[in-house]
Amino acid sequence: MTENPERAGKLFEIAEHHGLSTLPGVVEPILDSQILEFRKTYLEWANNRERELLKYLTNTPNIFRTYIKHSDRAYSLASKVVWYHDEVIVRDPVFVLLNEFEEGKSNIEDLKGNVRTLLQFLNSFRSLIEQGFILLKCIERKFEIHPPEFTKKIIEDEKLFNLLCETAFLGHMQKPDSLGNPCDIFQCILDSSRGTFFSLDVPKGTPKGTQIIGPSINMAEILPKVDYRDLIKKADEKKFLDYLRTSFCREVAHTIRSTDMANQLNSAVMFDRDVDPLILSSSGKTIDSGRQMATTGIFNLIVPFMKNIPPDRLADLREKMPAAFIEFRHRLFQIVENAKKEGVVSDEALHEKVIGELTSHLSQLETEMATTLKASNIQGYGSLITASTGILVGSVLSAPITPLLALGGAGAFASLKAVTDSVDAEGKARSNPFYFLWKTQQEK
Predict the structure, then answer these.
(1) What is the number of H-type helices and E-type strands within the chain?
(2) How open is the CA angle 417-422-425, to the nearest 5 degrees?
(3) Residue 221 is part of which domain span?
(4) Distance between CA 367 and CA 349 in Å, rounded?
(5) What residues have CB less than 8 Å from 135, skipping those under 6 apart?
(6) Closest Cα partner for 63 from 40, 39, 45, 89?
(7) What is the CA radius of gyration of the chain?
(8) How many domains does the chain have?
(9) What's residue 420's pLDDT?
(10) Which pLDDT does position 372 carry in this prediction?
(11) Is residue 356 part of a domain?
C-alpha cells in the first residue's frame, strides 16, 4: 500500500509519466490520446485518494487544519498560512477540470492548454503538496453552478447585496452589434464564477424579421472596471440586476458550501474577505466554534507579530524548533481560553488582551536575554517590544476570518539582532513558552 495515500504529491508523477511537463514555461505539443489517457489515470487515482483522505481526516480530528474556500487566491493564501497549521485543505483544480470534460462534446484543445497551465501552477507548491502540508480535495461544482433556491432570499439583505457589489469585480464596455448599433457588455467576477453577457436592444424603426447578432466576446478578456452605481445608469436595470442576482446566488452557495465542507473534513475554515462572515450570518450556517477559535481564530491574533517575516522563514523556524513551536501554540490557546473564562466577550477586547499578554511576555524575555548578555559583556541588545494594534480584521469569538496577509509590510517590533548568538542565553530562553515568538522577531 502506498505510504500516505491521502496526499496528492503523486499528481506530478502521473503527469510526467504521461509526458506532460510540470515545469513553468515549457510548452510542448500534447496529443489527444495523451491527454485522454492522463485524464483516465488521474481521475481513477484522485477518486482513490479521496476515499483515503476522508478516512484519514475522520481518524485525525484534533490536528490543526483549515479548509480554504476555492478562489484565485486560495493557493497563495495557503502557502502564507501553512507554517502555523499542520495541514491546509484546498480544492483540487485538476480534478474539477478533468471531471467536467465530456469526451466528444468539450473542446479538447482547451483541455490541453488548461491542464498544462494548472500543472505548472501547482508545481510552485510541489514541496508543500508532497509533504502533506497542502491536501487536495475532490470537489464538484454543481452546488455553485445550480445554487439552491434559499440563496435568493439571502441576497435580499440590502447590506449583503451592497457588500457583494463592492466585493465583485464589475466591468463594462460597448461594442457594435451586427447593425452597427452600440451594445452594452457587462462582466461580473467573483470567487465562484466569472460571467460576461451583453444586453441587446432592438432600435425603434427596425423592420420586422431583421436579424441582429450581438458583438463577439472574448470570455477571457477583463473589461474596464466600473462602479456598481455607474453600471446601473448604463444598463437596463432589470436585466443587469437579474444578472447580478444570479451571480450573487452562486457566490452565496459557494461560501455556504465551504462551511459544510469544513465540518465534513474535521477542519476550521479560513476566509479572506469581509463578505463571507456576513453571508454565513445571513444564512444561519454555523461552524465548530471550538475548532475555529483554536486554529484560524488564534492565528488571526498573531498576525501583527509576523509582519515583514517571509512565510517560508517561519516554516523553517518551526522545522528547526518543533517543540518550542508546539509549546507556543498551546500557550496561545490557554491565553484565549483564560480570557473567555474571565468574561471577555468581544473580539476587540480579546484582541487587546492577547496582544497585551504577548507583548508583556516578549518584553520580559527580552529583558532576561539582555541582562544575561550584558553580564557577559555582549553589547547591542535591543529596545522595548511593542505590538502594533488595530490592524487585525475579523472575528475570533464568533466566526473568524483571516485578513489578507501583507507579510511584506512594516515590522511592529524592535529586535535583539545582536544578541542571538549567545549559546547560554538561548539555552535558557528555550524553556520559555514564548521563545518561538521571540525568535521570529529576530528575523525582522
Answers:
(1) 19, 7
(2) 100
(3) 150-256
(4) 27
(5) 6, 7, 8, 53, 65, 87, 88, 89, 90
(6) 89
(7) 26
(8) 3
(9) 35
(10) 58
(11) yes
Grid cell 508545481 in the structure block, residue = 123
pLDDT in tens, 359-401: 888 888 887 766 655 554 433 333 333 333 332 233 333 333 3
pLDDT of residue 196: 74
Phi/psi of residue 412, each to 5°? -100, 0
Residue 273 lies in a domain: no
Same domain, 158 and 124: no
Task: State the DSSP code for 196.
Answer: E
Burial of 320 (0-12, 13-18, 19+ CB in 10 A): exposed
Distance, in Å, from the CA atom of 203 to the CA atom of 179, rounded to the nearest integer, reads 10
Q: Name the residue among 86, 63, 67, 62 with its Cα closest to residue 77.
A: 67
User: With pLDDT > 90 as the criterion, what percentage of the chain qualifies?
Assistant: 39
Give the position of cell 455556504.
256
Q: Which of 242, 149, 237 is nearest to 195 (CA)?
A: 242
Are 312 and 392 contained in the same domain? yes
* Span 164-191, pLDDT tens digits: 999 999 988 888 888 888 887 888 899 9
- CA atoms of 342 and 193, how far apart (whole Å): 44
Does one domain contain both 344 and 430?
yes
Q: Which residues contact 367 (CB under 8 A, 6 or more apart)?
A: none
SS3 label, residue 82: coil
User: What is the C-alpha separation between 444 and 308, in angstroms, rounded?
Assistant: 6
**In angstroms, what CA-CA distances link 66 with 5, 107, 123, 143?**
19, 35, 21, 21
The DSSP letter of residue 163 is H
Domain co-membership, 252 together with 308: no
Closest CA to 216 of 178, 187, 179: 178
H/E element, 174: strand 169-176
Q: Which pLDDT tens digit goes with each residue over 309-364?
A: 888 889 888 988 988 899 988 888 888 888 888 888 777 888 888 888 888 888 88
Residue 245: burial class (beta carbons within 10 Å; 0-12, 13-18, 19+)? middle
Q: Which of 111, 66, 79 is nearest to 93 (CA)?
A: 111
Rounded CA-CA distance 45/8 in Å is: 10
Instruction: State the average pLDDT for the chain.
Output: 81
Whether the full predicted model's pTM is greater than 0.70, yes or no, is yes
Closest CA to 53 of 94, 2, 120: 2
182: region left, alpha or beta (phi > 0 left; psi from -120 to 50 alpha): beta
